Each structure stands twice: as structure tokens, then as C-alpha cells.
Amino acid sequence: MAFSLIVVGATGNVGRGIVAAARERDWEVTAVDRDTVGFDALPEEFAGVKTVVGSVADAERAAELAARLDLASADAVVVAVNIPWTPTPVLATTWQQADDHLGPYLRLHLSAATTFLPALSAGAVYLGMGGGMADIPARGMGVVSMAQAAQRMLYRHLEREARASEVLVREVMIRAMVHGFGQPGEPGPGMLGSDVIGERVCDVLVDAKERDVVVVLEA
Q: Signal peptide: which range, if any (predicted)?
């Protein structure tokens, strides 16, 4: 029986890489995104993939999405969602600006986890995609670092709390710049291509039991 994977945030650079790598392995893939724009623009890339439009922006929308997914039969769920941020020094950032990023970003991951995790079966993998700026004070990215550091701790707590259900919770931190689909040239120093990220994430899903709670991908 084919490995069954649900990818939330499937049309982003990271999500697309995971979908592509999973299809190369002949896995059954359900791709989720918040609207049809990405799916409409990539019909060939998502050939053979079940597509579902939905959001995890809050608990209500996550519950509505979960009702349309076969979570109980899924071998794995990957949450590859993000909130954009315009680089701004911390000392030039208002609390409102910070809150406008921190709140929605963490709400995405908390809403998805509290809705999806209880519906997964024993042995399934629940994996969130995070960023290496949880440890790296990059210029203008202080608020992003705070969000990603909080996300890492969220997944560590989720992993502990999910042990009784035997669902494996993992986070993959990308400690590199992402060279996305459609960008010219090859990935430069300190960069990882979306295709490479997809392959490595699929490897983590296959042997999640042998992995640490937080798995770091580096260029």
C-alpha cells in the first residue's frame, strides 16, 4: 500500500519540493493550499495529486479543512506554512508590527497541530517546517527569529504530549536560504534547492523514529 502524505502549504517553494519528491517515490499525495491560484498555475506539477483548498489560519478554518481530509488514514502530515516579513531592525519595530507577524505565524502552527494531531493514527508522522533563524540573528530578522524559536519549542512540547497516542512529531529546520522553483541558476553557497529539501524531508518521514525531534537541514 502506498505511503499516504498530506502537505499543507503545498504550492510554496518548500511545499512544492516535498510534493515533487513524494510523487517521485509514488506516494499518494494530498496537496492543501489556501486558494486555487497555485494549483491552477502548476497543473502538470500536481498531476496525480489530490488537491484540497483550505486554511489553518485559525482553529475554525483548520477544523473545516480537517473534516475534508482523511487524516485517520494518513501516514504523514507536513505543515509547510509561513508568514512574510519585511526586514526591519528590532529597535525600529513597534509591538504592533511584531504582533502582526508573531500572532498569525504561531497561530498557523498551533491551529494545525491542535486540529490534526488528535485525528492521526498511531505510527503516523506529524512534521512542521521551520527556519534556522531560530538560532541565527540575521540582520532585520529579529521578529522572525523569535517566531521560529517559539515554533521550535512548540514542536518539542507537541512531541512530548503526542507520545501517548504514538504519533511521531518532528520539526525540520531549514538552516539555509531556499532556492525556489523558477529562480535562475543553481543554488549558491548557503542555499538549498526546493528539490533537495523535498528529498530530505521525505527521508525524515520514512525514518522519523530514528530522528531527533528537531532535524536541521543545512546546505
A: none
The pTM of this model reads 0.96
How many angstroms separate the CA atoms of 173 and 130, rounded?
A: 4
In angstroms, the CA 20 to CA 49 distance is 10
Q: Which residues of 23-51 are buried (b: 16+ CB within 10 A; e: fewer)?
A: beeebbbbbbbbeeebbeebeebbeebeb
Superfamily of 4-218 according to CATH: NAD(P)-binding Rossmann-like Domain (3.40.50.720)
Query: Do residues 162 and 118 lie in contact, with contact meaning Cβ atoms separated by under 8 Å?
Result: no
Q: Which amino acid makes up residue 210? A: E
Average pLDDT value for residue range 111-139: 96
| Cell reading at 99 | 504582533
For the chain, which residues make up each domain, given as ranges? 4-218
Residues 6+ apart with CB under 8 A from 46: 10, 19, 31, 39
Phi, psi of 114 (to 5 degrees): -70, -20
> For position 181, what pLDDT does the model report?
79
State phi, psi for 138 to the nearest 5 degrees: -70, 145
- Which runs of consecutive H residues, i.e. helices, occur in 94-141? 95-116
pLDDT digits (tens, 9 = 90+) for 81-108: 999 999 999 999 999 999 999 999 999 9
Rounded to 5 degrees, φ, ψ at 131 are: -125, 155
